[in-house]
Amino acid sequence: MLVPVETRSVSPVFVGRTGELGTLNDALARAAVGEPQALLLGGEAGVGKTRLVEEFATAACRAKAVVAVGGCVEIGADGLPFAPFSTALRALRHSLPEEFTAAATGQEEELARLLPDLGEATSSRHDEQGMARLFELTARLLERVAAERTVVLALEDLHWADASTRHLLAYLFRTLRTGRLLVLATYRSDDIHRRHPLRPLLAELDRLRTVRRLELERFTRDEVGRQIAGILAAEPDPAQVDDIFERSDGNAFFVEELAVAACEGCCTGLTDSLRDLLLVRVEALSESAQRVVRIVAEGGSTVEYPLIAAVAGLTEDDLIEALRAAVGANILTVAPAGDGYRFRHSLVREAVADDLLPGERSRLNRRYAEALQADPALVSADARVMRLATYWYHAHDPAKALPAVLDASVVARRRHAYTEQLRLLERAMELWDSAPDEVRSALRPVDYTEVYPPCGCDPATMPLDYLDIMAEAAVAGRLGGERERALKITKRALRLLEDDGDPLRAAWFGVQRSRLVQALARGDGWRELATAQDLVRGLPPSEVHAEVLANVANWSMLRRPGADAFAAAERAVRYARMVGARATELNARLTLGGLTVEAGDIEAGLAELSLVKEHALAEGVAHVAGRAYVNLPSVLQGLGRDREAAPILREGLSFTRAHGLLADEAWVWGNLSEALYSLGEWKEAAEAAAHAMRVGHSAKPQGAGAMRLAHLALARGDIAESARQLATARTHYGTHDPMPQQALPLARLAVGVAAAEGRLPDARAELAAALEAGFPPGTQRYGWPLLLAAATAEADARALPAADVGRAETLERVAEAARTLTTGVPLWQAYDRWTRAELLRAEAADSGDTWSPVVSAFECLDRPYDLARVRHRLAQALLTEGGDDERDRAVELLRLAGAVAGHLGARPLAEAVTRLAQRARLPLTPAPRRTPAPADPAEALGLTSRERDVLRLVSVGRTNRQIAEELFISPKTASVHVSNILAKLGVSGRGEAAATAHRLGLFPEEAEERMVAG
């Protein structure tokens, strides 16, 4: 390779950037103590971003950090998928081989999608979570590698990044929590126009408090002077500094160009045109050197030396001389890996490329493609297919380009680079009509997703069809998050299929469209599914038929559970078995297990759910196993068996994390939060809910997390926070696709928040809307809490005159709805009794006998908060009835309820317990042992504790009825107590009894209060 060529165009003095370098060094220090850091460095082209990164990298290496640099690669107008990460990980593996190997152990096949050096990528199922799985494994890899050594991951030229790189970078910035890691990404800010794909990512990252964004400004005049002095190795003339500063406007790269031009006497040849400024030194090269520079400009960001030689057609000596001249003029530079060349600055490359004639550009691309096709070893294996597709496409040769872009699309899919796959497939659709018939007829659908196998075609005999490319593109768009583009493709495909007479393929596109409509919040997707179901009705069993039925069954389970959903699930299982579609069979059996539980055969349904989970784990069907870890515990929770569900959920967290199933992981976190709430572990429940919101990229799992936080806030008495989280949950769930498992819990929360804020009419309106929608079969787990919340709100508002209007009607509607809900398990029976007790309390007709069975029912369940609430209600009823035995039992009940409320932080319940105890003058804590004191006059007189309470009220002038209300006893009992007191004091009336109490000092505080009041 070439020896270094001396040049003075780059200043040896690092000028300015003190603040930015300080920020980077501060971030490095934080990373070194285990706080991962994320930074974005922006600035216009030529402002000095790369030089700043180089200075920082040098300082980091001096601090014993490992620096791994990767740059986004541009080939023509295309970016290679994950290029900067592949380069940086390769450097990291080279620098820390043992740590890297240990961190990647067991995940090499999956991580090979990013770093092909690790081996052949696994041919795992492609689904919505495939990319997320890869991202999660990458994040964990970096955290493990950076566990002991500080690692700086520098990713340059983010403005050229492909969509997959952008998605991975965003994921890392959001999820990195541990490790001595610093991630720094640079981008050209003047390229980020309104429609640039990086713009939304920058806006998203700006909202993350963990990401710092730096913007490099242009140099001041003083800094320009110092830069010129460094370049010229002499103090410049002030007039020259003024001239260069004015013409460069402080842009560091332009300062270099102008300073070198002035030094070489070319200043008079410069124009004010930017391109002329950038091309002036290119045009000073020899003809052969200019030719080589033009070849490199069209080859990509970095071009390998053997490939340049193959395209240039020069003798080796002539090529070396031409390259030496270009490097010596500081136009080209040797690539960091030492195996090729790149432009020293991308602005020069762009100027040279823009100066190419149209025919010249396509001719160069053709020569690149022909050279690479003749000798594939000219470039690295991981970039070969993509680059060949790009060269043929820009050579405008459809016959060569169509097969090449299809091959590249397969490579992109295998790397989970679905957005790049979609772009390539769209190019294939663009090229289809221009390609010769013989080329199209020779194409075969090798390794294409979800197209031929489900539609019953034989890929060995059937040529690739235009619809197959559209189907592949629709899947790529769905998996890559480009749902709008995918939806348009499915619409076009269905239009083409209207007269085609291919019901299976039309049904397949209908299923895809249903998924996209749901994901885009355009509807519930039923119309598309129903059409697909009609299309396959009466046809022989096929994978498409089984897939349609499985989707119908799952859709119905979530929205319209019942006999039709059960029948669809059974047929899906049967058809999937007939055609050997094992994954579809397991998925359908999972749905069937849940529907079996809802139909009343609980143990059989649970056994089927558990069996499917075990089969999916054993057979490596990760997406079904992930769903099983969501559904099985959820069904157990609905039956009140949260203690059984919790360990399965924790196991599910480990599984979904290990397999990168982010959506499933978010659902598991939400379900775990619900289980922990029921089990009385509220701190952990809040943490789990927060995880559900942070992990999930899909809206609905985030909605579930917000709903759990709203429940916790309501129970803790933070009504404003509960209302805020309720609004967040509603936003995430949307209104386009109401499901009972979301709508009913949201209604329950809304009733609770409205009642807590004193908005009883709003609470009734929420209830009415939910009852109008009805309780589909199997939704009793959501229906009972809603009815209970409504009955409780009515009972709590009983004393409000404004609540009288409409109360009877509301209570009747709640009672009527309760009669329709099943009570087949202990939890539902307990809710039934509780709801009916609250209905009686709302009419002031409850008693201890009403609440005792409710308490007994919850004492058999593992739900401490619910048990504390009903104990409080029973204590209230007992105190209302009166009697010493009732008081003693009430004391114990309130002590137990208060202890739970205090432990959980359930402030409203704790305050209610305290108020009730204070009104009844009940001690909630056992009296401490004291040393013997002088004899109590009341005890000497033979007064019981109850008689002493009555005497205290007599001494402040209370009537028998007032005493009864204050002490929760009947007026008759109060009268008996007063008579006994008069007899024991030896007095004839209430006035004398009060005077005696005052003389003996029985109630000094009350006496002082009377004197103050008087």
Describe it.
The chain is mainly alpha-helical and about 1000 residues long. The protein has 51 helices and ten strands. Helix content is about 65%, strand content about 5%. Strands 2-5-6-1-7 form a five-stranded parallel β-sheet. Strands 8-10-9 form a three-stranded antiparallel β-sheet. α19 packs antiparallel against α20 (about 420-430), α33 (about 660-680) runs parallel beside α35 and α37 (about 740-755) packs antiparallel against α38. The longest helix is centred in the last third of the chain and has 21 residues, at about 885-905. The model is unreliable at about 1-10, about 265-270 and about 1005-1014 (pLDDT under 50).
Amino- and carboxy-terminal Cα gap: 107 Å
Q: Report mean pLDDT, rounded to a whole number.
A: 85
Overall shape: it is: elongated
Name the helicity range: 55-70%
Amount of beta strand: under 5%
Q: How would you characterize the largest beta sheet?
A: 5 strands, parallel
Strand order of the largest sheet: 2-5-6-1-7
Low-confidence stretches: 1-9, 266-272, 1005-1014
Q: Multimeric state of these chains?
A: single chain
The count of DSSP E runs of length 2 or more, i.e. the number of strands, is: 10
Our Rg estimate from Cα atoms comes to: 38 Å
